[in-house]
Amino acid sequence: MERALVTPPPVRSIGMDRTPKGERSAAVLMLLTDAPDPSLTFVTRAETLRRHAGQIALPGGRVDPGDVDRADTALREANEEIGLDRGQVRLLGELPALWVPASRYDVTTVIATWDGGQHLHAVDPAETGAVHDYRISQLASAEVRVTGKHPSGFSGPAFILGEQFIWGLTAHLVDWVLELAGWDRPWDVGREVAIPERYMRD
């Protein structure tokens, strides 16, 4: 993964122009364990949040004025959401920011590794409902990969992991990293699944 980030990849097309608009900025943390088959950390957003309640996401949030850079934002948010000690983290690099039309944020993905030794938990139940981790081998498996279909006509990569459904920007970011790191495996893009209603709240 680190080698893939030596030269930052170009902005990825996700069905529309995702070039940053400069309106407001956010950062998310793609946290991988330092292992042959890494685990990737996700959160379930709290059901009480105004936007994207109950959805599976990467830890992260908006850039605050005091943040030094996007990595600082992602690490601060991860500490606030899941109690991650930034001293345990080794930064690998960043993906180019992508514009998210639903929130009008330019979102930068910060990629990092850690030893996985710290217990991560939902620090504030009003913000984070749960913490999950999935092995890269599981995320890359054709058994969990589908194309998610939204009633609006939107479609994109998605992952079905037990009762959890990962779609939208988070699924695109996971798909992108699987590809960049050479972890991706063939899967049936034509296997379409309607996005469960409980994961579609704006």
Automatic annotation (TrEMBL):
Q: Which domain of life is it from?
A: Bacteria
Q: Which GO terms describe its molecular function?
A: coenzyme A diphosphatase activity; metal ion binding
- Name the Gene3D superfamilies for this protein: Nucleoside Triphosphate Pyrophosphohydrolase
Q: Which InterPro entries match?
A: CoAse (IPR045121), NUDIX_hydrolase-like_dom_sf (IPR015797), NUDIX_hydrolase_dom (IPR000086)
Q: Name one Pfam family in it.
A: NUDIX
Q: Which cofactor does it need?
A: Mn(2+); Mg(2+)
Annotated keywords:
Hydrolase, Magnesium, Manganese, Metal-binding
Check the record and name the SUPFAM superfamilies matching this protein.
Nudix
Q: Where is the Nudix hydrolase domain?
A: 22-161
Indicate whether Transit peptide appears among the record's keywords. Answer: no
| Protein name, entry field | Nudix hydrolase domain-containing protein
Q: Which organism is it from?
A: Tessaracoccus aquimaris
The uppermost taxa in this organism's lineage are: Bacteria, Bacillati, Actinomycetota, Actinomycetes, Propionibacteriales
